Sequence to fold (299 residues):
Amino acid sequence: MWTKKNIGDLTGKTGIVTGANTGIGYETALALYEAGADVVLACRSEQNAQDAEARMRAQGGKGQLEIAVLNLANFGAIREFAQTFIQKHDKLDILINNAGVMIPPGSKTDDGFELQIGVNFLGHYALTGYLYPLLNATQGARVVTVSSMAYLHGKIDFDNLRSEHSYDAFREYAQSKLANILFSVELQRRIEAAGDQVMSVAAQPGANKTDLSRFMTDEEYGAAVERIGDLMDPWQGALPSLYAAVAEDVKGGDFYSPNEPGGYRGYPEKLPIEPHGLDVAVARRLWEWASEVTGISFR
Ligand SMILES: NC(=O)c1ccc[n+]([C@@H]2O[C@H](COP(=O)([O-])OP(=O)(O)OC[C@H]3O[C@@H](n4cnc5c(N)ncnc54)[C@H](OP(=O)(O)O)[C@@H]3O)[C@@H](O)[C@H]2O)c1
Fold:
């Protein structure tokens, strides 16, 4: 059973965790900080970032903490975050693309994309793209992209990525989480084709008690718990991301999940990706679309 006690000493490593103010992101950032890494808490709200930093400092860690505002629903804000990071830091060992939004009422990013594909996938595509030169210049750097078992139900609808047609909250969430898997695997393919040393790995946290359910009704939440069973505390849901970020046997293109059947609970284990998550043609088309709409080409 792998827990955060297995992380080892991360002194001298620098990491970014998106959505680090709460839930899985908070626990991921805290564990990296406890293990000695210098961690940037990349959060949408400065106040929430400050509160999270204060709570982490109170718990104590061996590394350094820094906060930075990052709104993944705005390409300009992502560029600004990345430029500031690159000015201040000369390396980036661990990028955890964790932030996410689930089943909001139909809404769009500042750049006009359906919010879930926009924040969960496109925002992280842009962030990774801006930071890639620094990742590539850092020996042993890893990009961990957080998906969900909802990816199993996902399908990329290239004609509806700006909500041009109907909106179905869960369908769009599942699409965005499939996009996270396709992105993670396609990034690894491109890394290998370029002969780079960066590693791209996907993770999913299982079913956890976090604010992710904020847009669910009580009935929807109750039905989900009845179907899934007990939810985990987010420290446990953070373990697959942490394993992907630091464990020695991890390979680029891997996917880590809690190990109980269904992927809802347990401790990190490598899980095979279903064929639609490995579809090269869809992954390429999605990457090319993201490159075109963000204006960022990398690898
Ligand atoms: N919890 C689960 O059971 C579960 C299951 C499968 C997958 N996941 C995945 O795990 C990841 C973390 O989720 P969680 O459960 O920890 O959810 P959470 O508690 O709701 O945390 C989500 C984080 O993402 C941030 N965020 C949302 N929109 C953003 C934006 N536009 N720009 C920057 N940050 C933004 C939130 O910031 P604010 O606090 O400011 O809103 C928050 O920090 C997500 O990718 C989610 O899809 C979670």
